[in-house]
Amino acid sequence: MREIVVISGKGGTGKTSITAAFAHLAESVIVCDLDVDAPDLHMLLAPVVEEEHAFRSGHEAVINQERCTKCGVCAELCRFGAVREDQGKYVVDSLRCEGCKVCVHFCPDQAVDFVEKHCGQWFSSTMRFGPMIHAQLFPGEENSGRLVALLKKEARQRAKKQGLSLILCDGTPGIGCPVISSLSGANLAVVITEPTPSGRHDLERVADLCHHFRIPVAVIVNKFDLNLDNSREIGVYCREQGHGLLGMLPYDEQMTKAMILGKCITEMPASHFGDELRGIWEKIVAYPVGPLRLA
């Protein structure tokens, strides 16, 4: 079993569109959307949800109105302004609550419960290319790294159960906690970048992160013809650092047309972009990587 994670140092590089095309080209694959804060792979792959599960992480304070004597101690002690009076009752604003338990500890009537927090939903689905695991955090919720780890574990279990040989993950942009969780245990990181100063800078950051975790890096430069000098510099950087340069994709309005139709670029009529992408995928399939390191 192989696990390939498609990531980018910054948003807007075309990562999700390219991942969707790889899902179309791949065989024996389960797709996993790890961008749980702002998922969008489902817009192209149109999965049909088969199972839906609540994601719970952390805790929040909830005032039990039957036990509450409205003394106001909780509101007085809360340093985050999470407790407020509403129509003669004290309630906790879940968006402000930091889970510090001050109100729970000091309530003289033990009227504040500390319940597990419902942070989002995760799904097991089927789309036109095979099974898919994905999720959605509620607005403002945290612990995205933990949810990513849950999705990866579920994808590995289902891949093993169904005899699938490839786990294809659409990672998150940047280098934060969910990206680190996305990379955990993977045996290849495909980094999508663009020929801009910010694209080059963020490529270097995410490549350094992969190097720290000893994960091989292969690079795709998208929209390379928008700045040929920067594209050449990225190619030189990849050779100097020992990163595989899988290819350079041109700017193509066909990509936008495909998104509007809810299709992958490789499902559209034949084009130079599609042919280049197919060649890149063949290189990824043949890329020399070690076995999956379960973490």
Provide structural commentary.
- The chain is an alpha/beta fold.
- It has 2 domains: 2-46 and 128-285, Rossmann fold (3-Layer(aba) Sandwich); 58-118, 2-Layer Sandwich (Alpha-Beta Plaits).
- It has helices at 15-25, 41-45, 73-77, 102-106, 144-162, 177-183, 197-212, 228-241, 254-261, 272-285; strands spanning 2-8, 29-33, 48-63, 83-86, 89-92, 112-127, 130-137, 166-173, 188-193, 217-222, 244-249.
- The chain has a 9-stranded mixed β-sheet, sandwiched between helices.
- The radius of gyration is 23 Å and the shape is elongated.
- The model is unreliable at 291-295 (pLDDT under 50).
The CATH class name of the largest domain reads Alpha Beta
Helical run tally: 10
Shape descriptor reads elongated
The residue ranges in which pLDDT falls below 50 over 5 or more consecutive positions are: 291-295
Helix content: 25-40%
